[in-house]
Amino acid sequence: MTDTSPADPAPGTAADAATLRALEWRAVVERLAALTSFPPSRELAEAALPVSDAAHAGLLQDQTDEAARLLAEQAQASIGAARDIRAGIRRASRGGRLTSEELLDIGETLRATDGFAGRLKTWRGPHLGGVRDVLDPAPELAARLARSLDDAGQLVDTASTELAAMRKRLRTAQERVRERLNAMLRSSDLAGVIGEPIVTVRAGRYVIPVRAEAKGRLKGIVHDQSASGATVYVEPLTVVELNNTWTEATLAAAREEERILDELSREVEARADSLLGSLDALARADLWIARARLGEAMDAVRPAVAEDAAELLSARHPLLGEGAVPIDLRLGQRFGYRALIVTGPNTGGKTVSLKTLGLLSLMHQAGLRVPAADGARLPVFDRVMADIGDEQSIAQSLSTFSSHLRNVVRFVAAAGPGTLVLLDEVGAGTDPAEGSALAMAIVTRLLEDGAMVAATTHYAELKTFATEHPLVSNAAVEFDVRTLRPTYRLVIGLPGKSQAFAIAERLGLPGPILDDARGRISAEHASMEETLTAIARAEEAQVAALAAAREDRAAAADERERAHSGTQRARREAAEVLNDARRAADALVARAEREVAELRKELTRQRNLSSGRRPAPRAAEAFDELARRAARARSEATDTGSVGPEPTTPEDAASAGPQPREGLWARSRTLGSTGRIVEVSGRTGRVTLETEGARLVVPGDDVEVVPEPVSGPTPRDLEADELRRRAAARVSPVLALRGERVEAALEQLGNYLDEALLAGLDSVTIVHGSGTGALRRAVREALAEHPRVRAVRGGRREEGGEGATVAEL
Question: Rounded to whole angstroms, how far apart are CA atoms 195 and 286?
Answer without folding.
Answer: 61
